[in-house]
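Internal ticket - ligand job 375, FE2/S2 (inorganic) cluster:
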Amino acid sequence: MKIVVVGGSGVIGSRLVTLLARDGHEVVAASRRSGVDTVTGEGLTQALSGAAVVVDVSNSPSLEDAAVMKFFKTSTHNLLAAEAAASVRHHVTVSVVGTGRLLGSGYFRAKFAQEKLIKESSIPYSIIQATQFFEFLTNIADAATHGTAVRVPPVHFQPIAANDVARTVNKIATGDPLNGTLEIGGPEAFYLDGLLQRVLGARNDPREVIADAHAHYFGTDLKDRSLLPGDEAELGEILFDDWLGRTAQPIPNANVQPAAAAGARTGRSQLKENEFRVGEVPAASVLLVGDCAVFNIEGGFCATQAMCPHRQGPLSEGSLDGTTVTCPLHGAQFNVWTGAVLRGPAKDPLKTYRVTVDGDIGRVEVPLAHAFQGA
Ligand SMILES: NC(=O)c1ccc[n+]([C@@H]2O[C@H](COP(=O)([O-])OP(=O)(O)OC[C@H]3O[C@@H](n4cnc5c(N)ncnc54)[C@H](OP(=O)(O)O)[C@@H]3O)[C@@H](O)[C@H]2O)c1
Ligand code: FES
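stdout (structure tokens):
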């Protein structure tokens, strides 16, 4: 089945492309960098030719109110028209839980307009409303930063890992259209202020998160349950602590938030900067160790530089399929054993490092020239 993933280089799109390709579908990762622009219409007809399903996981490059509205209205209109012409049988999109009750925000007004266009079109559809991605938490903090303080309302929310979102989108895209909306959320609820503080602390980010009942969230007021999914929502499996443990920078000194230090790397204190416990990296997973990403490929370990050579995407947050890691920012792919570039936009290969194992301790053998900072 030919499936076009619009926004196939993004956080959800790149993971989804990997899952669909693994299951044997003919997948087109469509976005501007592959010559498909849903705003101008460039490349759309060719990309959609023969497609059965279109998944739209694109996002507006600008979050300014007028720009984001123009993006979602124009892009969705062009996409649905091209789908009708190509006899596409199923349009799938990812929206946000609570969109209809957050209309004080320009972003959510634009997502609401996108949903409306989809519901009014002739194409059978599925709308998946997801809660905030774990991978998006620092963006929430950035949007709420004033000086060195992050001001957010102390409300409940139930974020979800991008890998869980991609798995659900994969399932829905390859099934019958819902002609309705499915909500998905993470397995646990948190306070927004508390969790942002933990994420920042785990990355040694000095900003302080302040619970401010009057603070806005992307321009809108929040009630305690505004961001929570309903009782019928499907829940993801990945626990926040597990995700943070895999993705957070290690804590090099005591000058960090105590909660983050406890949650991020329990037991790492006896390890050197280039060491890890073998049990921390199960098969087919990746762990950030100092400045390196350590991969477990069917029981064998290898390591590469942690940051993507394109624009510093965190490869330890990317998806791993066999020996291929996909950068979570723009979808570049690399062979983790050789470092070779398998797909752009990255042009330069990854640096690779040998990993040795002694009992239950693994060690990244980094040449002195690339030694870990502070090691
Ligand atoms: N972040 C969250 O917490 C969250 C929560 C719930 C729902 N959502 C929704 O999930 C969706 C996907 O989010 P994401 O974080 O995965 O997005 P993302 O990482 O920001 O990726 C956006 C994608 O859109 C593409 N794009 C931008 N302009 C385009 C254009 N004119 N034509 C074609 N492609 C274009 C980009 O690629 P190019 O730059 O190559 O064009 C990129 O692949 C969004 O619609 C968002 O509203 C997000
Ligand atoms: S592909 Fe752009 S940062 Fe990795």
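Auto-summary: Confidence is low (pLDDT under 50) at residues 249-267, 368-375. The chain has two domains: 2-247, 267-370.
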